[in-house]
Amino acid sequence: MPTELEELVEFLHHGNTEVRQIAAENLVGYSTAQPEIFKTDRLTPVKDLKLLIKDYPAIAKNALAILVNISADGHILKGLAEDDAFLESLLLRMTSDREPNANEMAMLLANLAKSDSITRLLQLKRDVPKSLSKSSNALDQLMDCFVKGAEGRYNKHADYDYLAYFFADMAKHADGRQYFVTPRQDDSDIIPLTKLIVFTEHKSVVRRRGVASTIKNVAFNVPSHAKLMSSTDVNILPYLLLPLMGSEDYSDKDMDGMLDECQLLPPDKERERDAQIIVTHLETLLLLTTNREGRDVLRGVKTYPIVRELHLKVDDESVREGCDRLVQVLMRGEEGEEEGENKVEEIDEDEQIIEVL
Prior knowledge:
The chain is mainly alpha-helical and about 350 residues long.
């Protein structure tokens, strides 16, 4: 005989709406405590949950919560991510300006991006949601959700913040990195990454974390570094450096060459408070030092004084280690330089970081 829990799972496809609602609501907790109950009978419960995202909003919300939790299982993830019909069902609803569970769907899509098969969205063509986008490309449409939908501006029920994590995973793939630095013909030749970098100081920590990780993953594509740092292309540097800065004053010498956006900041300017995000930005800057040109650019825009102040002001070991790694690269002498050209001095006997003069 099936246990009471197994019977409850079977009620997910019951013909009575109230029974389905009770079953879905009560099973949310078990999706983290006993996720294996959803793998019975050749994943029939998962198939039921896929259908329930089309059900009444309250039922769909619980079904999505369960799917988010159990998608950590590799077998379930594969069944979700490789199901074209299910993926289209998600996209259809996410791109609607009236979908009440769009945030939950964004969370699920972010989990599905752990599967390599989700990269097919880079080429997927679908109907254009005219109130949202001009493009038939699925990823373009999700970008529009993220940008236009921030803070509920497109769909009052959603902010789409979790799509930032989806983009970060897409950027782990070579084709994904290329997408983010390639002008989109369907969107006035705008480079997609330029739409994301403006959120590095957004109030949502979820959005900031995901965008920071996306930028870092894109920066693994070394041939794109010149485009990323060029002020006439992506212009990424202000959006990496400003989150590292507070309201500190810099000497005229420090400011000579510093980006305009980084000078004369207001007295209420706050530094990024999340250490994980700061470390991610430092790692991106380190990636941009891969070649000589990148190192010269970062030296020229006075990255060092900014990192020096960051090291002094933030009491976090991972941040200080990230600062030290970046400074070691920036202070290192280059082939062909005369001895003493990059003289190193201690800035304070109690501090580990050093200054490049």
